[in-house]
Amino acid sequence: MYKLKDKVAIVTGASKGIGAGIARQLAADGAQVVVNYASGRSGADQVVADIDAAGGTAVAVGADVTDAAQVAALVTAAIDRFGRLDIVVNNAGIYQLAEIGDTTEELYRRQFDINVLGPLLVIRAAAPHLGKGASIINIGSNVTRVLPPGSAVYTGTKGALDAITGVLARELGPRGIRVNAVSPGMIETEGTHAAGAIGSAFQAWYENLTPLGRIGQVRDIAPIVAYLASDDAGWVTGEIILGSGGMR
Ligand code: NAP
Fold first, then answer.
1. Residue 154 is among the residues annotated as catalytic for this protein
2. How far is the C-alpha of 103 from the C-alpha of 107, rounded, in Å?
3. Which of 37, 95, 154, 206 is catalytic?
4. Helix (H, G, I), strand (E, B) or coil at 173
């Protein structure tokens, strides 16, 4: 049963990590998927090839989510290619930890630009094309509950995104557009490998405090997003769903 049949999705930051897993999941559930990337063209092409090989439909489109013109072109590409837009997943994001003494304006601006301005620009560009039954899903983080020391800026971006999710659920609800967030716990991705988190003392600390006793995998998050994207979640909006093994 293809629960996203006839729906068209944009997934930002889908060249690797959680976004790539979400793109694959939405395609497996029947959606036609725009696989967005910023610098990872080859990764996005591989995701598209995997989706094609599995019998799905996808296209890779490059766009930096902090650039309004590129974001507008991303949405136009989705409409031109597939004729409609139903699902927007704001996944593109970065995490750069720093204690307050090492927190620079550059670190602040880069994280807020990608993690907060990016989703706002994407939703602004997409909203005119969305109608009744459409679903916007923002990828937050359980750091807003865990409040890890050294994450003031990153956690601030995800707190802002949670608030934006709630506001836009109210603002777009009268048009039948749902807006929700999924907040993952620590997930093994290219990003967490590059950050040195996998195999670190932080991972051991994290797992020790997680009721389900492990960090997450991309497959733990993608089905939650697919559910929120589907009509099964037609009465769910303004929610922040933790996918964190109970860690909060
Ligand atoms: P990742 O492996 O580092 O992948 C990040 C993705 O974001 C890449 O596809 C990258 O594209 C894209 N991206 C970065 N800057 C972009 C920009 N300006 N425009 C468009 N795309 C951009 O990260 P991840 O671990 O999968 O994390 C994905 C999301 O989940 C983030 O929002 C993160 O905050 C959130 N999250 C992650 C975890 C975790 O433990 N992994 C936990 C909670 C929340 P290119 O490669 O093409 O540059």
1. yes
2. 7
3. 154
4. helix
In a domain, 200, yes or no: no
Q: Which helix (H) or strand (E) holds 10?
A: strand 8-11
**Residue 143 alpha carbon, nearest atom of ligand 1:** 43
Residue 2 lies in a domain: no
Sign of CA dihedral 137, 44, 49, 58: positive
C-alpha distances out from residue 175 to 123, 127, 187, 234, 236, Å: 14, 10, 34, 13, 14
For residue 33, the enclosing domain spans: 8-187+217-243
| Tens-binned pLDDT, residue by residue, of the chain (248 aa) | 799 999 999 999 999 999 999 999 999 999 999 999 999 999 999 999 999 999 999 999 999 999 999 999 999 999 999 999 999 999 999 999 999 999 999 999 999 999 999 999 999 999 999 999 999 999 999 999 999 999 999 999 999 999 999 999 999 999 999 999 999 999 999 999 999 999 999 999 999 999 999 999 999 999 999 999 999 999 999 999 999 999 99
Instruction: Give the pTM.
Output: 0.99
Residue 18 belongs to some domain of the structure: yes
Q: Tokens 């303004």 identify what position? A: 238
- Partners of 90 in the beta sheet? 138
Establish if 151 belongs to a structural domain. yes
Q: How far is the CA of 174 from the centre of ligand 1 (A)?
A: 31
The total number of structural domains that make up the chain? 1
Say how far apart CA 18 and CA 42 lie, in whole Å: 16
Instruction: Please give the distance, rounded to the nearest whole angstrom, from the Cα atom of residue 188 to the centre of ligand 1.
Output: 12
CATH number of the domain encompassing residue 90: 3.40.50.720
